[in-house]
Design goal:
By secondary structure, the protein is α/β, with parallel strands linked by helices. The protein has helices at about 5-15, 25-35, 40-45, 55-65, 70-75, 100-115, 135-145, 165-175, 180-185, 215-220, 230, 240-250, 265-275, and strands at about 80, 85, 125-130, 155-160, 185-190, 200-205, 255-260, 280-285, 290-299. The strands form two sheets. A seven-stranded mixed sheet has the order 5-4-3-6-7-9-8, with helices on both faces. The protein has a two-stranded antiparallel sheet with strand order 1-2. It is globular.
Length: about 300
């Protein structure tokens, strides 16, 4: 087997990936970090160190997978989101930086609701279409880091997904990322097509449902994204599941409840208009690039 230092492998592998990736150097850096158990700084500091044969064999296999179109996160099984290291598989959507904006707004709303509430019971939150669980888990971990909030006051979070394999990923992330059993017990998991098997009412419904128009999903998957169609495809115009979710949610809203939903630039305005016809007031929030991203609904 040919010998490589981190530096020479990085040069070789980056050239290999130029035809299939828009970020070949970053891809190789992440693969090196994972294989060597290094952080970004160590990859640079130890760039003249030779890569052991067993790790080089893993890197060759990883390159082949990446060249086939498999995303780096699925190869490593990890993706950072909101500062936390999430386990991911091809059964779930890879967490995206733009979704962190939904988490930030959710935290603002939760803290407002906790301050305003005269109810001593914890808030009830639904993380609909939870996937990896990145939204609900990030919310609870961040709230837990606020010392003045006791565990018993933290929200209860119901995580819902139509995909049982996706829920298994979410369960693993809850078990891995939460430091105390009392926090793990804050989560309930329901395998359901939206609210079909869900009971009760919620103070906050968070959702990142499939919202990409079918024709655009085909284009994304052809481009080598390789994420689950089920988590992307929002039907012809991208709003089919969104509309269904909004209608069904009406039976599951507590007093003064809020729905916060990622809908993307494709249909945020259409979603807001549809919600208004259902009796909601609507705000549309933009993402890091100024594109329409999230819709916030109150009734």
């Amino acid at each position: 087997m040919e010998k490589y230092t981190l530096r020479t492998f990085r040069t070789f592998a980056t050239k290999q990936l130029e035809a299939v990736s828009s970020t070949p150097d970053l891809d190789v850096q992440v693969l090196l970090q994972h294989a060597m158990h290094y952080d970004k700084t160590q990859v640079l500091l130890f760039s003249d160190n030779h890569i052991p044969d067993d790790k080089l064999e893993w890197l060759y296999n990883a390159l082949e997978q990446r060249e086939s179109g498999l995303p780096v996160a699925y190869i490593t099984g990890h993706k950072e989101f909101y500062g936390f290291d999430f386990f991911v598989t091809p059964q779930v959507l890879i967490p995206k930086p733009d979704t962190e904006i939904l988490v930030e707004r959710a935290l603002e709303l939760i803290l407002e609701k906790m301050e305003d509430s005269s109810n001593s019971e914890p808030l009830q939150i639904c993380d609909m279409c939870t996937g990896s669980g990145c939204i609900g888990i990030s919310v609870l971990k961040t709230l837990y880091a606020i010392d003045k909030i006791p565990v018993e006051k933290l929200p209860q979070i119901t995580m819902v997904d139509i995909s049982e394999p996706a829920l298994e990923v979410a369960r693993k992330n809850v078990a891995t990322l939460l430091p105390e059993q009392s926090l793990v017990e804050k989560f309930t998991f329901i395998n359901s097509d939206l609210f079909e098997k869900v009971e009760g009412r919620f103070d906050l419904i968070l959702a990142n449902p499939p919202y990409v128009p079918t024709s655009m999903v085909d284009e994304l998957l052809t481009d080598g994204r390789n994420e689950p169609r089920l988590a992307l495809d929002g039907d012809a115009d991208g709003t089919a599941l969104i509309k269904k979710l909004i209608i069904q949610s009406c039976e599951h809203l507590a007093f003064n409840a809020t729905i916060l939903m990622e809908t993307g630039e494709y249909n945020a305005l259409q979603t807001a208009e549809f919600a208004k016809f259902q009796g909601f007031s609507a705000q549309v929030h933009t993402d890091l690039e100024g594109e329409y991203r999230n819709v916030e609904l109150t009734k």
